[in-house]
Structure formats: C-alpha cells, structure tokens
Amino acid sequence: MTLSPSRRALLAGAAGLAGSALLRPAVAVGPTWPAGWPADWPADPGTAACRAPAAATPPETEGPYFKPGTPLKQDLRADGRGGSLPGRPLDLVGRLQGRDCRPLAGAVVELWHADDGGRYDNSGFTFRGHQLTDGQGRFGFRTVVPGLYPGRTRHLHLILAPARGGDGAAPLTTQLYFPDEPRNARDGLYDPALLLRLERQGDGLLGRYDFVVG
Ligand SMILES: [Fe+2]
C-alpha cells in the first residue's frame, strides 16, 4: 500500500502520541472524562455480544479535506473566547476494540468535519482535532452537527490509529452517518453499518459508535 504524504504525517504523529501514552498508567491514557457524559455507559449491543473475531468496521475514503497536524483537543465547538461555534451541539462518544474484542487503549482518534454551514476549515483547525482512547478504549468529542455540502449527505470523518503494539491492528479511515437523513439514500459512500446511534441531550445530541479495528 502506498501512503500519501498527509497519511504518513498523521501516522507518524499518531505513533509518537500513542507510544508516549502507553508509558502512562492505563487509567490515565485518555483525557479526563467530562462531567455530564455517561461515565460508564453500557457497551454497544454489538460490543457486549462480541465474538472474536469480530467484524471490522467498514473503511471509507479519507476525502479531499483531511489535514495533518491537528491539536489534541476534546472540545471542537469552543470558539476560544469562552463561547461556542454555531451549530447544534453534538457529543460524540465511542469505544475502540480489536477483532479479538479487547478494548484498544492509547489509540489516536482523529476527527474532522464541516461546520454548521457545510464548510471545511482548510487554513486552520476549526472542527479538527484528535483524542487518545482511555484504558477502556473510550474516546469523546464535543462538537456540532456538521452542515451539508453539495454531493454528500451529513457525515463525520475519522481515522483511528491503534497504538504501536496494539495487537497489529491497522489504522482505519472511515466516516460516520446520521440516521433519517434524506440524502443518505442518494450518497454513494453512505453505509448503514456506519450509522451513529443518536439520542437527544438537552438542545443537542449524543452520538455513539463503537469501532472494531483490525
Ligand atoms: Fe466530508
């Protein structure tokens, strides 16, 4: 496989971050779990019933708007001035596990998506950031529901890069989709296996997805 320069840059950064994270105690690998988030949410039914080897999460194209060098950042909707960027709040949480059903700690989870108006920030890092999974393989972002842009349904982009030594699991590039979107059926990349599970959370949404990487 030939890696693009941007992909190599991400993986080089991911390997360094994940490697250093593995030197810490397992419970401190990831970020502090934010107040108000489900501290011990039940495993996804698919995760709970995992039978090794579990089916890997489907890959999808990176698309044209990936940008390496993102900040380690949990709150993508903060505007840096104590407020929030426009858009319906979306908390995105999930777990990573290998095909052997074990959680993957210290993995890099890279997230990028369009803003509320369907625009990508190609000069800065608005709605771009990465997190490290904690000892239970969990990650979480605060962001907003992305807007629509021509030719695509509503979606999020992710790259999940297991830590070095993570049972040989390879990085996964994929996308996540929103249920009940009129454009889903017309988007050639849409895959129902990549649908978020959404629930209302105040004025916003809590979206969950558990990944199997390997
Ligand atoms: Fe996109």
User: Strand share of the residues?
Assistant: 25-35%
What is the count of β-strands?
8
Instruction: Report the C-alpha radius of gyration, rounded.
Output: 16 Å
The CATH architecture: Sandwich
**Would you tell me the structural class of the helices and strands?**
mainly beta
Which small-molecule species are bound to the chains here? Answer: fe (ii) ion
Q: What is the helix tally?
A: 2
Q: Can you identify the CATH superfamily?
A: Aromatic compound dioxygenase
Biggest sheet character: 4 strands, mixed
Strands ordered across the widest β-sheet = 4-1-8-7
Describe the structure.
Helices cover 10% and strands 26% of the residues. The chain has 214 residues and is mainly beta. The chain has a single domain, classed as Sandwich (Protocatechuate 3,4-Dioxygenase, subunit A). It has a 4-stranded mixed sheet with strand order 4-1-8-7, with no helix packed on it. A 4-stranded antiparallel sheet has the order 3-2-5-6. A hairpin with a 2-residue loop joins strand 7 (197-201) and strand 8. The longest helix has 17 residues, at 5-21. It is globular, with a radius of gyration of 16 Å. The model is unreliable at 1-9 and 11-29 (pLDDT under 50). It binds fe (ii) ion. The site of fe (ii) ion (FE2) has 5 residues, from strand 5. Fe (ii) ion (FE2) binds at residues 63, 65, 152, 155, 157.
